[in-house]
Automatic annotation (TrEMBL):
The keyword Hydrolase applies. This is Alpha/beta hydrolase. The keyword Hydrolase applies. Transmembrane segments: none annotated. It comes from Bradyrhizobium guangzhouense. Pfam families: Abhydrolase_1. Keywords: Hydrolase. Residues 29-270 form the AB hydrolase-1 domain. InterPro entries: AB_hydrolase_1, AB_hydrolase_fold, Epox_hydrolase-like, Haloalkane_dehalogenase.
Amino acid sequence: MTSTTYRTADVDGFKVFYREAGRAGAPKLLLLHGFPSAGHMFRDLIPLLADKFHIVAPDLPGFGQSDMPSRETFSYTFDNIARVIERLTEVIGFDRFAIYVFDYGAPTGFRLALSHPERITGIISQNGNAYEEGLSDGWTPIKAYWQDPSPANREALRGFLTPETTRWQYTHGVPDPAAVSPDGQNLDNFYLARPGSDDVQLDLFGDYKSNVALYPAFQDYFRKHKPPILAVWGKNDPFFIPPGAEAYKRDNPNAVVKLLDTGHFALETHAREIAEAIRAFLA
């Protein structure tokens, strides 16, 4: 089955929407998206890999078509997001799989690896950071909120949630912005505009410090278990810079690093190149 189907799983009462393609029994690949996107960011990649892999691309809790419960009933932390996604893999029978992690998908996927290292067959990190040297100066206002979670510092982060900033994230560092489809960014902005979504995202900005605190644990996992790692990186990313890709080699000398002349959302311009790299890597 190379066509994509669109499904919803009941994960202990939490509705998780996901895209699925490929043949049951083929090597499994879990695609984990980032901010401010959803599984739709993989719309060009999935058809390029579905003949070889059984692919699942969920929308993280609070994103896309998955449930976005109130902040009073669900605490928006990366620990809780990872718990839901881990349970999703169990519910749908994803027992051993490679992970493609991007942006927020990285701390989500790496938590899965820490919890069950035996389930992870490989890691493709596309601008998915696990090293402090991979954080650019663009994180400065968010770091200020970590240090002082005052209403003023929280309010200062709302600029990250505007349609203009979403478009900038998609086009910054892309040699030809006309090569970037407006479809993904417009859908992201639709989801960001939902009532309550802004505070969900601000909560996650604040909790991102928990990911940085786990970087040493992630790095210890890379050293101890030595999962195959492919770091394929938009080298002009304004948030996660190339030293974060190169750092994987420090903990796993066999890590493969591929830098692409594009920005944060590398799949928008380089889906075919990334698919070819994944095929070679997971062959």
